[in-house]
Design a protein that fits this description.
The protein is mainly alpha-helical and 93 residues long. The chain has one domain (25-92). 88% of the residues lie in helices and 0% in strands. It contains three helices and no strands. The chain has helices at 2-18, 26-49, 52-92. The radius of gyration is 20 Å and the shape is elongated.
């Protein structure tokens, strides 16, 4: 009985949790995506050593950090783009 309830509840919880991402900022989406991908990869690697839980936890932490660094890189590129665009407009005048 418990297994049936779990099989039904997990997809429902996953579908409902996606609704929470609707108003997320770009930073929150990138960090969340990094954490999710890191957790999946960490669980896969951890399963080979016999402890998928710790692997997922470590992978989630590393993935969240990587997602944050990616976001900072994107922001830096955005700032450089807009600064270059502003400089080009001033040069035209």
């Amino acid at each position: 009985m418990t297994l049936r309830v779990t099989r039904l509840a997990l997809p429902l919880v996953a579908a409902l949790s996606l609704g929470a991402c609707e108003n997320a900022t770009r930073t929150e989406r990138n960090v969340g995506t990094g954490a999710l991908g890191g957790a999946a990869l960490g669980a896969l690697i951890g399963s080979f050593s016999g402890d998928a839980g710790w692997g997922a936890l470590g992978g989630a932490a590393l993935g969240a950090g990587a997602g944050y660094l990616y976001e900072q890189s994107e922001r830096s590129q955005d700032r450089a783009y807009w600064q270059g665009r502003q400089d080009a407009r001033q040069y035209r005048r």
